[in-house]
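::Encoded backbone::
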Amino acid sequence: FREDGFLVLEHFFSLEECDSMRSSIQRILDGMEVPPHCRTEFSTKEEEQLQSQGSSDYFLTSGDKVRFFFEKGVLDERGNFLIAKEKSVSKIGHALHAHDPVFKQITHSSKVQELGRKLGLERPVVVQSMYIFKQPGIGGEVTPHQDATFLHTEPLGKVLGFWIALEDAMEENGCLWFIPGSHTSGITRRMVRAAQGASTCVEFVGSEPAYDDSKFIPVPISKGGLIVIHGEVVHKSEMNSSGFSRHVYTFHVMEAKGTKWSKENWLQPTPELPFPPLYT
């Protein structure tokens, strides 16, 4: 992990645990009612991020709630679904770990806590969680990025992602790709809250460098596997053009000891939901 910036742990969760998360998200989908004006398409392309998430309070205030974000091209100009709504969702976030008992149990499970201790985390807190669908045929690409661009701490190096495959994640259906060792040279871009009165809620400061495609390696993982992701390692995933989805539950923790969470981050703790300690 210290050398590469990521760590692959196959069979970390049981198939039953994976299925319980999938059942839980199905219940949440069954009850999904999204007002048309809140229907936000999720994108990782900078311009599109600023237009969709960036202009949407629905995104900016989702840190302590369970909210729905959609793939590109699934809504008409009036915000009506062009395909079955449950097949149109890109992700659900950002506080499943706080509001759903199944995701809460998984996030704070004894094996996750034990792994946190093995990684040297002293006072980790959970900052956000997401369920990502990577829908068959339309699951969008996630462009090369570092998580610390969006979840900035002082000092850097205090954020970790836990990425759990709830189905086999292969090259065909959009597994993660990493540049090993790319977590050691800081970040060049940040997404920050825009000043009051700006046309978007967030803006980017700095720019993402052009990454050498040949340096990325695919990291397939089977159902139940966990990938631990350093906040500054460069990673991406390709579009899912296969006929199979690639469901994932992922959450981020921050080492709170001696760390300052940036007030400029889009995601902020709230009085209703301060970042909960990982260790219970």
About this structure: The longest strand covers residues 124-132. The domain at 6-261 is CATH 2.60.120.620 (Jelly Rolls). The chain has a mean pLDDT of 91.
